[in-house]
């Protein structure tokens, strides 16, 4: 019996052959902590009364969840991370650099075949480059800071085979919402999702990041795309570190296989208050929205901004709508500025907010009002997620969000693409 | 470690209770962890924290603790004085986080428990006793490593004692 990518990555790390269901202790290639969960990890690490972390070159700290700081208390937490990073020699990304997951990939800190962890559930995004990555809590992170290791159960893998191409106006976000609608919020509990098929082969690295990012919304431990030439070219342009890409064997044991014909999909919208409450856009058309948010670790990359701009260019955001635009990183913002994308979106009426998580986790910036509807490119629409439990959040692609910003109501983006 | 015999009243929830519902993101940016308790389950039941008595248990359906990796979720539950969380299934990260902070997260058929039932959990025997209904509900066996971590009261005391993961 062959092995899945994840079984191979873990076997390579522990130095013996392991299979799904085995428990093992793995060495970690990279650990990321951010401002919402990092302080607790430091607090726990201090309890070990150990001076140094196991390997500061394998740790990164990012300020992204509440940036720039909205208050004194959070400034204190930011400073705690800043000081600890300096003291330990940990790579640190301060306010305005961008969202942790975008930075980990963009800066070449996670490579194919790595085991990468982060104190954020969307750490599974790094599966896009063929790494086995997943979110952990702060105390688990403190254990990694101390030992460089984590115990885990080798997950089974579910293969998602996506064939044919997405049609015009339909994007990786729509595909992933469709998949979550099928699997539901716990359909992939404890599993790793492996995305393959001609649609994935043709998909950009950014699109693959969108898919892997939302694997957790079906309960998955991780998402992974088999690394191909595109992956290798992408990571080699960002890192000179040695890596060993892994691929699943043809006779690997998959717990399940889901086949999807991408050509049949239409734009999708997740209705409040659950990510798996997925409907075709037709069923959402006309629902009024007061706020539109384009950004996040799911859809704040250059291609997402371009996608929104292709619809908003030369048009105006509806008077009844606030359009918030938050590039995923400084690099994304700079490139979008150079290409005139930012200018075009701001001209249409977008409000630019600094790179980071923005309004998504509901700490500050863009908290919706009571009774308001928001359509967002984010990955979660739980009640209260954006800071107000009396507002409703719909999730969709950047294109659907852009079209909705024009109309002040949820709209099908395809009519703006002809 | 935490007591082997836990006793308290059940507070029943449904399926898919996510970590945003357990503790909203806006409250998580603090190291004053006792402050979290007042906001436990606030977005789904604003009065919840007032209904709790020390030792009470949170009982839920499938996929309890899905969503964010925020450890503030099990911390808020523990800081509220809840002695254990019982559910049909847990989301992976929450399950680890709870055990890592020494909060028993136990898998059992929660359909056998109604809101307000008096419960007794014997961590050693592996059974939940529903005193109100006079039934014994078996709990799913926890992986050995988690049992060892819970026995020490969490991952920090565990690693302080053993220095590494090698001890089972």
TrEMBL record, chain A:
Any Gene Ontology biological process: L-leucine biosynthetic process
What CDD domains does this protein map onto?
A: IPMI (cd01583)
Q: Which UniProt keywords apply?
A: 4Fe-4S, Amino-acid biosynthesis, Branched-chain amino acid biosynthesis, Iron, Iron-sulfur, Leucine biosynthesis, Lyase, Metal-binding
Q: What note does UniProt attach to the cofactor annotation?
A: Binds 1 [4Fe-4S] cluster per subunit.
Can you state which reaction this protein catalyses?
Answer: (2R,3S)-3-isopropylmalate = (2S)-2-isopropylmalate
> What Enzyme Commission number does this protein have?
4.2.1.33
Pathway recorded for this protein? Amino-acid biosynthesis; L-leucine biosynthesis; L-leucine from 3-methyl-2-oxobutanoate: step 2/4
What does the record note on quaternary structure?
Answer: Heterodimer of LeuC and LeuD.
Please state what class of enzyme this protein is. lyase
Question: Into which family does the record put it?
Answer: Belongs to the aconitase/IPM isomerase family. LeuC type 2 subfamily.
The yes or no answer to whether the keyword Flavoprotein is present is no
Q: What is this protein called?
A: 3-isopropylmalate dehydratase large subunit
* Biological role stated in the UniProt entry: Catalyzes the isomerization between 2-isopropylmalate and 3-isopropylmalate, via the formation of 2-isopropylmaleate.
Positions annotated to bind [4Fe-4S] cluster: 297, 357, 360
Q: Where is the Aconitase/3-isopropylmalate dehydratase large subunit alpha/beta/alpha domain?
A: 7-284, 286-408
One GO term in the molecular function aspect is: 4 iron, 4 sulfur cluster binding
Record keyword Iron present: yes
Automatic annotation (TrEMBL), chain B:
* Superkingdom classification of source: Bacteria
Which pathway does it operate in?
Answer: Amino-acid biosynthesis; L-leucine biosynthesis; L-leucine from 3-methyl-2-oxobutanoate: step 2/4
Top-level enzyme category: lyase
Q: Which GO terms describe its molecular function?
A: 3-isopropylmalate dehydratase activity
GO terms in the biological process aspect are: L-leucine biosynthetic process
Q: Does the keyword rRNA-binding apply?
A: no
* Aconitase A/isopropylmalate dehydratase small subunit swivel domain mapped to chain residues: 52-104
* Protein keywords: Amino-acid biosynthesis, Branched-chain amino acid biosynthesis, Leucine biosynthesis, Lyase
List the EC numbers from the record. Answer: 4.2.1.33
Catalytic reaction(s) noted: (2R,3S)-3-isopropylmalate = (2S)-2-isopropylmalate
Stored Pfam families: Aconitase_C (PF00694)
What PANTHER family does the record tag this protein with?
3-ISOPROPYLMALATE DEHYDRATASE SMALL SUBUNIT 1, 3-ISOPROPYLMALATE DEHYDRATASE SMALL SUBUNIT 2-RELATED-RELATED
Query: Subunit info?
Result: Heterodimer of LeuC and LeuD.
Q: According to its UniProt record, which protein family does this protein belong to?
A: Belongs to the LeuD family. LeuD type 2 subfamily.
What protein name does the entry list?
Answer: 3-isopropylmalate dehydratase small subunit
